[in-house]
Prior knowledge:
This protein is mainly α. The protein has one domain. The protein has helices at residues 2-16, 19-29, 32-47, 62-96, 100-121, 126-137, 150-154, 157-187. The protein starts with a helix and ends with a helix.
Amino acid sequence: MLIPVIVYLLSFSSIIYNKPFIEKQLEKSGLFFHAKEVNSLVIDYLMDEGEAKLINLDVFDENEEQHLLDVKVLVHRTFDFLFLLLVLFFVLVYFNYKNSSDFSKILIYSGMITIAAPLILYFVPFEALFVNFHNIFFAEGSWVFPPGSSLIQIYQYEFWYNTSFSLFLRGFAAGWALVVIGLAKQKL
């Protein structure tokens, strides 16, 4: 399970600070004119590893600013967790998988799990995934905003759906790459 988790965290990391990708998703929502500027500031804020402070933009109210701070903390913890998993992965590979046959099987099975995850999640309504994600990682009620709030207006449902779809599509493709590499290693 280590490799599939790493794959999806890497997929997440390829999206979270990717301004051109996020701008493209915002364009699909139809609110690109103002959202581009605000989004750029939000991404810069999320990237800043300095003091954990509120974003302090006139665009967001206090609850939205607090949620963005919570998101910032979660993103940085996610990157810390990814780093630890990568170190663990390389240590395990170095000490345990000198046999190419064993490692190729691990790549194949990990790839299959990585491929299966989005296929299984496909049958779960996106709204349920979104709500459960927030219930797990954020304090109750801290992520629910009125329909007219700036966060809801800028980062609309379609944005989250399309971004999540892209994250899982990247993981899905990486899963296939793991299977192909594993099979190729078996033939060598």
